[in-house]
């Protein structure tokens, strides 16, 4: 295992994830710099800080840089890093709107140095579901319904299970208002438990000619545990619904199976609280690569992206998630918003990232 030198740009809560995880894995990562303007914030992690990207690039040449800045600032940061010839792992989305996506692609797309930290399919349960759906056990995947996260993340999940490409998509969106108690925000409980009007956005997405997705998101559904996180993956021989799977196993036999997470640290298990593996029909289909670090699922997913990025820059593995894929996710996410605003079906175009790559 070789150590990878990384630098991080940004001072928000997402940048904190990358900093914490890199410091937890000193055998894998060395943080050679952190671009942060706030001196008080810079003292929160024991790493060398720089006031701007120019100063960092003048002093260090990391193996890759993580860009975790605002949507508006990100394209110029990515362009500057790519101009220096350094691979970069960008937070999501890589740019704020369609014009910014096209602008970014025109400047860096051909260089093939930008990957995007779209981590959702690295979450343990989603990774396990993908392993089974890709195995052919439920046949050809034709439809995916996601009700858990918003926008480009949900689109990425749909496209990953469907293996959807870059063809035109047709999007039809509507919304509904209903009262809902909102007890949790990021990191704390709310003192006000009075039901408030919450918006639910529903969108159907047709990918090409024969694949579809259903997007269902309610305000603050990331944190509000009064709403389930749901996923349905439909195939020609069965379907996965959350942790359950039903499928045609033989010509005259329909079977049911479950995804089961093995979690250490419960009851009399004294190995410490951690996810060990996920099984399906008695077979391990996902194994936590960071056992012993006591990471929550989101941290496991982000750490997986970091390790995959390190392997890619050292020519030891495939690219984790390309700028083209992330741009396509956000293109469709923007179409969901546009369809809702205009009240019409929106058809996306075949964009430059598809044309340039011949996709």
Describe this structure in words.
This protein has 10 helices and 19 strands. It has helices at residues 13-24, 39-42, 53-59, 74-83, 98-108, 124-135, 151-162, 297-313, 323-342, 352-357; strands at residues 4-9, 29-35, 49-50, 64-67, 88-90, 114-116, 141-147, 169-180, 184-185, 188-189, 196-207, 211-218, 230-235, 238-241, 244-250, 253-264, 274-280, 283-287, 346-347. It has an 11-stranded mixed beta sheet, covered by helices on one side.
How much of the polypeptide forms β-strand, as a percent range? 25-35%
- The coarse silhouette is globular
Q: What characterizes the major β-sheet?
A: 11 strands, mixed
CATH topology-level name of the largest domain: Dihydrodipicolinate Reductase, domain 2
Rg (CA only): 21 Å
Seen as an oligomer or otherwise, the chain set is: single chain
Overall residue-averaged pLDDT value:
96
Summed up, the helix count is 10
Q: What is the straight-line distance between the termini?
A: 34 Å
Strand order in the largest sheet:
18-17-16-15-14-13-7-12-11-8-19
- How many domains? The number is 2
Structural class, from helix and strand content?
alpha/beta
